[in-house]
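Researcher: For the annotation table, I need structure tokens for Pseudouridine synthase. Please keep the output clean. Sequence:
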Amino acid sequence: MSKLQYNYDKEEQCNIKEYLKYTLNISGRFIRKSARDGRIKVNGNSINLRYKLNKGDKIEIDLHKDETQNIEPEKMELDIVYEDEDILVVNKKPGVVVHPTKSHPKGTLSNGILYYFQEKGENCIVRLVSRLDRDTSGLIIIAKNQFSHMALARDMNKDSFKKFYLAVIHGILKEKEGTIDLPIHRPDDSSLKRVVDPKGQRSITHYKVIEEFKHASLIELLLETGRTHQIRVHVEHLGHPIIGDSLYGIEEDKMYIDRQALHAYKLVFPHPRTGKLLELSCDIPHDIKELIEVLNES
């Protein structure tokens, strides 16, 4: 059973809620929920959040909580890149929807992950920290408990949390490295497509050219913000849409690749429990490798 354990070693007394929130940087919402469920103990006894800590007190927070989720578990081959008691990181295949919807109630990554947890005997629900479009491949983080989910959600907006992508785009960029700082807007609620528009949210993408071909480029992108379709919208606005992008790109690309050539290949982030920086990566998928081979030959 996963637990957080701390020893209080200060001479002066301290309110436990303030210590957990401000000294240990634990989410206030998580602290309140855990206390309400009786999962915060000091020296083996459940306490309320008015408790004053004394030197030598042993704090224990039980991360286990019985929860259910309206997702059908389905056996699925998962490409697991990293796993421990707090998080699971998988390399999502292209064409796989991340979470069940009305149009995709089954066969999603979440269905497969829930099956995986149940087969291992882990009483976890699927807590997605990051998401990818159906036709974007690459790394996705799943939190195994409420604590790690809240910690990672909090850290996603910090500089220490980095999401790197590789994309094959049309054309040759004049600037080989730069930043795209353009607001992204959804024209109306029924629109799937996003556009660059002053009415939108500020959106920042950093890019660097990795390799150039005759009429295309392989680029690395680092997201500073995480808007829907951000990379796809930004490069299309510059006149360099991602090859294979059926929504923002060119229809004729289907003869080369049947989805956008976009892959979330690297994540750098602090571990929710230890704070240690994790750097995880995965290979370019086969279909993008084949596209690069074709571009090299042309």
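Researcher: And a one-line annotation?
Model: The first helix runs from residue 16 to 23.
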